Request: fold
Amino acid sequence: MTTPWPKYIERYREYVSWECKDLPVDLVLAVIEHESGGVAGKQAEKKCKAAILPTAGGAQINVNRALGLMQVIPPNIKSWNEQGGEQVLFEDMTGNDERAIRLQIRLGCWILASAFKGLNKFYPEVFPTASGGNADPNNVQCALIGYAVGVGALREKFDILKAEGKPLTHAQLRISFPDWGKSPKTGKWVNRPLFYAEVVWNEYSKHIGGKKIDTQPPGLKDKVVKVLSGGGWLLIPVAAAALWAMSKGKAL
Reply:
């Protein structure tokens, strides 16, 4: 019997159904539960690798913390924006309206789906599917490691195992690299990708079988910014904000 999610996680099922086409909804909900506890717009307490992100006012800001429901790091947000398409703003990753929620989930799912695709690309004999929906438990756990630290870091470990003739599994990673994520200088954990994958998998395994909600997603709303005018606040779409500022001789 599938365990129901608490309401503060289940509330995102429809958004995940819209934004995550090749991933099981409940796997994404498990990531959300672990990463943010379902708090939209969450900013991590610990610092991470920084990147410059655009803001709703047309400026740029240096961000050094993971953001949003799935705790996406700033360099990944920047990479998304450089690919074109819907530009994700700092306010999108720290907000809690529908647009913000959808984009936070969209970016997280993009990274998780890329982990499945990367494993399939580099090790097709072991990971024969690029779709998270068709993956076995080992594939899911390894993709979760890729989500936590990047597929590149996972490949370094797998290539060592492959050269030694050992299986490319989460279990073997635990045996061969028990201190992965521990600082050699301080002996303290910087991150724990193997433990992370295990915890998220265990939570997901309790909820396997949940369904996607088959509804047509509405168009993504524009981000609206507040600009102070002589008569009070004006609400204008962010796409028009720069033109409005130029007409007033102001920089956003």
In short: The chain has two domains: 7-205, 222-252.
